[in-house]
Write a structure and sequence with these properties.
CATH class of the largest domain in chain A: Alpha Beta
Distance between the termini of chain A: 22 Å
Number of helices of chain A: 14
Number of strands of chain A: 26
Number of helices of chain B: 7
Oligomer: heterodimer
Largest sheet of chain A: 6 strands, mixed
CATH superfamily of the largest domain in chain A: ATPase, nucleotide binding domain
Number of domains of chain A: 3
Helix content of chain A: 25-40%
Shape of chain A: globular
CATH topology of the largest domain in chain B: Monooxygenase
Largest sheet of chain B: none
Order of helices and strands of chain B: HHHHHHH
Helix content of chain B: over 70%
Radius of gyration of chain A: 30 Å
Largest interface: A-B, 31 and 23 residues
């Protein structure tokens, strides 16, 4: 029956109870998707066997490219090729401008507070760029698991603030994903290690990625992961090592600061290459093609590299010290130090971490994939596939949350490293007689002054009944959920007047913006899906045509009368004609007609096949290729 | 799901006493979170999710309160009908206040000494020693919670507030020194 059997991939599979879930590590440099299959967590490769998806999106003439294909365009089409977008997530235009010199793209002067990068496909926000990466990983997961994902766990740096978390969640929404949970990257790594090794005790996770640094100290007790404290820097990573090396190359090769984007990309490329080479060698040759196409060549040795990156590594060690203090843990109480993130491959990083913690750090799981693997395990549990699972994650908020009070000072409501979810309230009062409204300004950060903290939201409590100053009792409640996302509610208690906001950060997207993007992407998704179905049907049509023609060559004359043959040829021609048109239904229909019109022929072939088989042949030989006709 | 009208001690199945076994408290905390945490209701209804969130937040608050000597004392006082407004009331013990002023000056001066780290270490040890003494005093007060003893506990909590703040400031100085020299 193989000759004309048509089965849609996926349809043939029997439905089962197992819910498809995946963990996604949305990284600065690379992203990964992992899932739990038959009890083991594994990262999923693309069709070419690559597990790492470069976090690069290119808006090319032919459409949107993601991953390796996009990365290859980084030097030739730098303005339309966007990498390290994670560094811009949840950041305002001012923040982005402060990174300005390092970013090769052009920003649109838009009214919105969100930075938008100019590309040939129009202006795109960091959320949209991230959504493209997520879509690509989602497709990979669905292709390899054979069905739609019921939910995902997406990892974020523990030190991400509310705006950055919200932006990540928005990107997932835009990509059409159901997010079970945002999970802190070091916690995800701890899961991957903890469940593997079943080691109870206090662990430190040192996570240095492409653009972010986290340090978490957590206690593992029989499957319960309690984060005791977390610290870090959401703008420090391997990219900064690259920038430091690029600075050295510029100095050595006499390249000016205002080099064009293509030179900047080449510089970054050369810098990254040198950094990677120096994880193995003591010295490496750096070759840099200059603007006049001449080559500059120089030697970079490990000592020089170390001088360049030591100030950056020192920052990570300072953060480790503070986090241990916050956790009230001494260095000798720590069982293990786990290394996570590609940048922990740099020998100097390992050396410094080893010095500080006075022990050899653990590197037994690939630092690139450990976060995705841990996320997949949590996704699997949240999907309900592991009902007996004892695993429980108790995480903390990385940065203090507070309110602006008189004089631009910050009153902390929830201090950093408070276990989430958490609800805390603070009472305020009016300071003027007859005051009927109160402005509420929510901020995040450790500094005393509002201007030094990140502004998350402003809103107003109105309709306070007029009273003498100090008589009103205004209760402001902060709620942080298990994803680390904040909502705030204010209420005047004597009258019951209420106001509340979900923190849509000043830098975030409004719900309308998200809705617009969603509509646009849904429209595109339909187009994409239709196009894909058409291509699939066309491929199917050609497969059928070829198989039938091959069969006819073999035994058409023996098994069919001239009349029968003419009938089949007519069906065959109508499939050939339909495949040239862009009408899915017509192709499908023609194939069906052909199928039923050929039934008797298939039957005869099978009978003939059985006879042949007795003579030492198999049916498949008749189908496989032209050469079999002999 | 969880009876949110239970007080923190009831929630943790502990007698309403000042002395608390921290490991037992932690163990019970894990059990409670294991039952109510939102992750356990990822596939649940919105109502279940909302309740789980509320319950988990309540358990966290209870745990934070019970494991911290000052917050626990204040909470236990409130169960005895003594409501304190932290931050709004202060001790009138002149000798204690004088000592606090001096210690603050010591801390300020310490930034500029040659062996800042060692001196700071000694200073912090001294402060935590004083805090421990206050904890013992409160423990005794709550053993026989008479009116006077509760009043004494309240006064001791006020002092503890000062010392906690001083300790936090010392930590901030330590962090600053580390950033300068670390």
């Amino acid at each position: 029956m193989a000759l004309l059997q048509i089965a849609e991939p996926g349809e043939a599979q029997a439905p089962h109870e197992h819910r498809l879930a995946a963990g996604i590590d949305l990284g600065t440099t690379n992203s990964l998707v992992a899932t739990v299959r038959s009890g083991t967590s594994e990262t999923l490769p693309d069709h070419d066997g690559h597990h790492l998806l470069p976090s690069v999106v290119s808006y090319s003439e032919e459409g949107i490219l993601v991953g390796q294909q996009a990365r290859e365009r980084a030097t030739t089409d730098p303005l339309n090729t966007i990498s390290s977008i994670k560094r811009l997530m949840g950041r305002g235009i001012a923040d982005v401008m402060s990174l300005g010199e390092q970013l090769p793209w052009q920003f649109a002067d838009s009214e919105a507070s969100v930075p938008r990068i100019k590309t040939r496909a129009g202006d795109v926000s960091p959320v949209e760029v991230s959504a493209e990466i997520l879509k690509c990983l989602n497709r990979r997961a669905e292709d390899s698991l054979g069905g739609e994902l019921s939910g995902v766990v997406i990892t974020v740096p523990a030190y991400f603030d509310d705006a950055q978390r919200q932006a990540t969640k928005d990107a997932a929404k835009l990509a059409g994903l159901h997010v079970y949970r945002l999970l802190n990257e070091p916690t995800a790594a701890a899961i991957a290690y903890g469940l593997d090794e079943g080691a109870d005790g206090i662990h430190a996770i040192f996570d240095l990625g492409g653009g972010t640094f986290d340090i978490s100290v957590l206690r593992l007790t029989r499957g319960v992961f309690e984060v005791m404290a977390t610290g870090g820097d959401s703008a420090l990573g391997g990219d900064d090592f690259d920038h430091a090396i690029a600075g050295w190359i510029m100095q050595q090769a006499g390249i000016s600061n205002d080099a064009d984007p293509m030179i900047q990309r080449r510089l970054m490329h050369a810098a990254r290459h040198a950094k990677e080479a120096l994880t193995e060698a003591d010295s490496t040759t750096v070759v840099m093609q200059l603007a006049d196409d001449s080559n500059w060549q120089g030697e970079l040795d490990v000592e020089t590299l170390n001088t360049l990156i030591d100030p950056l590594i020192r920052k990570t060690i300072t953060a480790c010290r503070r986090t241990l203090r916050d956790a009230a843990v001494d260095i000798d109480e720590i069982e293990d130090v786990v290394m996570v993130g590609g940048s922990t491959r740099v020998p100097r990083v390992r050396e410094k971490v080893c010095d500080f913690f006075a022990r050899e750090p653990l590197v037994s799981i690939d630092p690139d994939s450990v976060v995705a693997i841990g996320a997949a395990q949590q996704a699997n549990q949240l999907a309900g596939n592991n009902p007996d699972g004892e695993m429980l994650l108790l995480d903390v908020n990385p940065l203090s949350l507070g309110l602006e009070t008189m004089g631009g000072l910050v009153e902390k409501v929830i201090p950093r490293n408070t276990t989430i979810p958490v609800a805390r309230a603070q009472e305020f009062t009016t300071f003027k007689d007859g005051q009927t409204a109160m402005a509420i300004h929510v901020v995040q950060g450790e500094r005393e002054m509002v201007d030094d903290c990140r502004s998350l939201a402003r809103f107003e409590l109105r309709d306070i009944p007029p009273m003498v100053a100090g008589a009103a009792r205004i209760r402001v409640t902060f709620n942080v959920d298990a994803d680390g996302l904040l909502s705030v509610e204010a209420m005047e208690e004597t009258s019951g007047t209420k106001a509340s906001v979900d923190i849509k950060p000043s830098y975030g997207l409004s719900d309308n913006e998200i809705a617009d993007m969603l509509r646009a992407s849904v429209a595109h998704a339909e187009e994409d899906r239709d196009l894909r179905r058409l291509r699939e049907q066309q491929v199917e049509a050609y497969r059928v045509i070829e198989a039938l023609q091959a069969a006819l060559t073999v035994d058409g004359d023996q098994l069919l009368s001239a009349e029968e043959r003419a009938g089949i040829d007519a069906h065959l021609n109508s499939v050939i004609e339909s495949a040239k048109l862009d009408d899915v239904d017509a192709i499908e229909n023609a194939i069906k007609q052909l199928e039923s019109g050929c039934e008797f022929y298939v039957e005869r072939r099978m009978n003939a096949g059985i006879r042949e088989a007795m003579a030492g042949h198999t049916v498949s030989e008749f189908e496989s290729s032209e050469d079999d006709s002999k | 799901m969880l009876d949110l009208s239970k007080n923190y001690f009831e929630l943790f199945g502990l007698p309403a006493e000042y002395q608390v076994e921290i490991p037992a408290l932690r163990e019970r905390y894990r059990e409670l979170q294991g039952a109510v945490h939102p992750d356990r209701y990822a596939a649940g209804s919105d109502e279940e999710k909302r309740k789980a969130l509320q319950s988990a937040a309540y358990v966290n608050e209870a745990f934070e309160t019970l494991k911290d000597p000052m917050l626990r004392a204040r909470y236990l006082l409130s169960l005895h009908g003594v409501d304190m407004e932290l931050g709004a009331e202060t001790t009138r013990d002149a000798a204690f206040l004088m000592q606090q002023l001096e210690m603050r000056e010591d801390l300020e001066a310490l930034r500029h000494t040659d062996d800042s780290f060692d001196t700071l270490g000694e200073f912090m040890d001294r402060v935590s020693g004083m805090i421990k003494a206050l904890v013992s005093r409160i423990t005794v007060d709550f053993e026989t919670p008479s009116k006077e003893n509760l009043e004494d506990a309240r006064e001791t909590v006020r002092k503890m507030q000062f010392l906690n703040k001083l300790y936090a400031e010392a930590q901030a100085v330590e962090a600053q020194l580390e950033e300068e020299f670390g």
